[in-house]
Every structure is written in structure tokens, then in C-alpha cells.
Design goal:
This protein is of the alpha/beta class. It is built from 14 helices and 21 strands.
Length: 423
């Protein structure tokens, strides 16, 4: 059971936060607890652990009755929308049946959430100090509203640091289901060392969830560019190629993957120790006849498969994203200064290259991207450049009018509607 009883400064206690096991969570919600047994022929519902804290509402979305009208202040010439509003209210408004006018009759393919991390600090543009229970209340309300407008094949990326990421992931498990968890990306947010603390913190966490589950989402997400070298030393009419091994780990092999291969030079080869051939003997012979097998060392080496450039669909993203690949906080601040000027326009922008990778992996051109914590506008700017539609929400009017809007206009993001929350 996970509990948090002491404040971050070691002083005043915060409300206790508990991760309750499934049966205990279910029992606490029933006046007469009984174990549920699924009828014959039906699958029992998945029991999920529940993160519990004092004051947690039974249904936070229904408990918040007020749904504001979203008023178009400045009509746009595209499907993109920038909303000045408290994001909980904006998400409730977008979740209504009449949301089609703002979401262009489509659902969200990518939701990127970069909420306040609850570090205990106070920044120029927002307050980042609150009790964990209150922080969880706010995030849970937004996740429940977001769930209603997500595309079946969409994904939610929750960006946090060590302050609350453990609670954030438990909450994502509760709202979307543990079976929706895909991965946690570690982003190197800084490359310099900070000797003021016990450890020099260099990374953030981005928890990735897909309502359809990781297997289905893998089929619709995009891979990363494969920059491996391709060549055509034998003038193959099918174009440039490179070779990959024709053996695999033997853990799940079948008997048909163990056989002897004879090279063009007459050398008999068995699979390497602990491995099997990737294909059965009959399929391997078909590949030989198709000219798909490359024999290294003049016909004495182990066979390799010729993989042509046009067949490569991209690499699976890794869970470690380094600063030299996707930028860091320092790079993000330089990008923002180049766009809007000033000495310190926004405290915590994200680098454009980080958002480019997230948007590339999670969406295709024309898909809808939502950022309910838009801040300086990085997500909207990059989404527009990549031909995605976007909806951004930012509560601070000063940030929108003096940072996000000038940045979008200077960055060539195209037209967008500016919307404000009415009464």
C-alpha cells in the first residue's frame, strides 16, 4: 500500500494517499460486499487498484455541474483552436455532444499533458505548489473528461517529473486501465550538472497510454526514421539493401527451425548456439530462389537476409530520449527567445524537437492533437508545421496573448480560431 503522509519539506503533513488493492477498493464502494462471479460464458470484469485520498469524489466529472460556453472571439481560417479558459472547464465543454463545432467532428488522436509538476515552486506564469490530494483531484477530473473525446486509436502522453510521476501513473492506471499502459519515456531534460541537491536530476518521465492497448496501438503508431546504411553492391534491380541476420533466439522456436544449411562453397552450418534459423527450411529455400539471401565471406559466412530500403517501415521508439536527439530545457528556452524575445518570456517551455517526435509517433497528417496545458504554444506550433490539426487550452490570458499567439504567428503556424470561456 502506497502512502504519503509527510509534506515535501518534511514539515506539515499532507493528506494520506493510498493505493488500494482491487478487492478492497471494490468492497469500499459496496454497502454489502460480495465477491462477483461472472456468469458462465462471460468474462469477469477486470479489477483495478484504486488510488484513494481524502475528499476524492465518486464521479468528479458529474460533481462539477458548471460547463461554460466557449465563445469564438477571433474566427480562424482552419480547424485549429486556441482556447483561453481554465482547462477543466474547457475539457468539460469539449466533451459535450455539441463539441463538433470545435473538434471538427473528430476525436483526439494525441493528447499531450504537461501539467504543473507540483514541485513546490512558484513560477512567473503559474503556481506549482499544492497538496498532492488537490493535485490529484485536478488531474483526475481532466483525465476523466479527456477520456470522452479520445479516438479509439489515440494515445495520452502524461509528462511529469519525480515530484508526482508515481501518483500520476497510478491515476492513469485507474482512469484508462493498466492494460492501456504502453511505456514510460525517459527524457533527458538537462545536460549540465546541479550540485546543490543530493542527486543531480537530469530527466523527466512521459507516461504513454493507449485506450486500445499497446498491441493495437503498435499497428497504428509510426516508427522512427531508420538511418542505417543501404547500398547495392550487386546491382540488384530491387534497389539498395542491407543485410540482417537469419537467426533468432531459440526460446520460442519450433523443431522446423533447426536444420543444416549448406553454403554455396559447400560448408555445412548449424544455427549458432542458443539460436535457431529465422525461417523453416522450405521458406529459407524460397528466399534463396528469390535472391533474398546474402552469403558473406564469399560464400563461407552465415547467411543473411537482404532487406530493401523500400521495405523498412521505421524503428520502434526506445524509452530513452537523449537531449542530443530531441533537445533539452536549455534548447527550448533559446527557441522561445528567438520567437518572442524578452529576457524570460516563459519558465518551462518544451523543445520543438521533443514535440516533433511525440507528434510523429502518435499521429498522421490531418489527425487532431490536443494540449490542455498549452503554455508557450510549442505543441500547437509543431502540430501546425506537421500538418496536424490542433486544439490548445491555456488559462493565463497574458501567456496566450503575449507569448503563445505571437509565437504561433511568427512561426508560420497558419490560421486558428481564438476562443474564450463565457459564463
Amino acid at each position: 500500500m502506497l502512502k504519503q503522509d509527510v509534506g515535501r519539506d518534511g514539515g506539515a503533513q499532507e493528506p494520506a494517499i493510498e493505493l488500494v488493492p482491487p478487492r478492497e477498493a471494490a468492497s469500499s464502494r459496496r454497502a454489502n460486499p460480495r465477491r462477483r462471479v461472472a456468469p458462465v460464458g462471460r468474462v469477469a470484469p477486470v479489477e483495478r487498484p484504486e488510488l484513494r485520498w481524502p475528499g476524492k469524489a465518486t464521479d468528479v466529472v458529474e460533481a462539477v455541474a458548471h460547463v461554460p460556453e466557449l465563445v469564438v472571439e477571433q474566427p480562424g481560417v482552419s480547424d485549429n483552436v486556441l482556447i483561453i479558459a481554465e482547462n477543466g472547464a474547457a475539457l468539460r465543454a469539449l466533451g459535450r455532444s455539441s463539441r463538433a463545432d470545435l473538434l471538427a467532428e473528430s476525436l483526439v488522436k494525441l493528447a499531450y499533458l504537461d501539467p504543473p509538476y507540483n514541485t513546490g515552486n512558484r513560477f512567473d506564469h503559474y503556481d506549482d505548489a499544492m497538496h498532492s490530494a488537490h493535485w490529484l483531484d485536478d488531474l483526475r477530473e481532466r483525465l476523466l473528461s479527456l477520456k470522452k473525446i479520445m479516438h479509439t486509436d489515440g494515445s495520452i502522453w502524461l509528462h511529469l517529473d519525480d515530484s508526482e510521476q508515481h501518483h500520476g501513473r497510478c491515476l492513469m492506471d485507474e482512469v484508462f486501465g493498466r492494460e492501456a499502459f504502453v511505456a514510460t519515456v525517459i527524457w533527458q531534460r538537462r545536460t549540465s550538472r546541479d550540485n546543490r541537491t543530493a542527486f543531480s536530476i537530469s530527466h523527466d518521465y512521459i507516461h504513454v497510454y493507449a485506450p486500445a492497448g499497446p498491441k493495437r496501438w503498435k499497428q497504428v503508431r509510426n516508427g522512427l526514421a531508420d538511418n542505417g546504411a543501404f547500398a547495392n553492391p550487386d546491382n540488384d534491380p530491387r534497389g539498395p539493401w542491407r543485410s540482417v541476420p537469419l537467426s533468432a533466439q531459440a526460446g520460442h522456436a519450433t523443431a522446423s527451425q533447426f536444420y543444416t544449411i549448406t553454403t554455396p562453397r559447400g560448408l555445412a552450418l548449424e544455427p549458432p548456439p542458443g539460436r535457431c534459423w529465422t525461417y523453416t527450411a522450405s521458406r529459407f529455400q524460397e528466399l534463396v530462389e528469390e535472391g533474398r539471401v546474402y552469403w558473406p565471406k564469399g560464400g563461407l559466412g552465415r547467411p543473411r537476409l537482404k532487406r530493401f530500403e523500400g521495405e523498412v517501415t521505421g524503428l520502434a521508439p526506445s524509452t530513452l530520449w537523449l537531449a542530443d536527439e530531441v533537445g533539452d530545457n536549455a534548447a527550448a528556452k533559446k527557441e522561445l527567445l528567438r520567437s518572442v524575445g524578452g529576457d524570460r518570456p516563459f519558465d518551462t517551455p518544451k523543445p520543438e524537437s521533443l514535440m516533433e517526435r511525440i507528434i510523429h509517433v502518435a499521429t498522421d497528417p490531418g489527425d487532431l492533437v490536443l494540449d490542455p496545458y498549452l503554455g508557450s504554444g510549442t505543441t500547437a506550433l509543431v502540430a501546425a508545421r506537421m500538418s496536424r490539426r490542433w486544439v490548445g487550452v491555456e488559462e493565463q490570458e497574458f501567456t496566450v496573448r503575449n507569448i503563445a499567439v505571437p509565437r504561433l504567428e511568427a512561426g508560420g503556424a497558419g490560421g486558428f480560431a481564438l476562443v474564450v470561456a463565457g459564463s
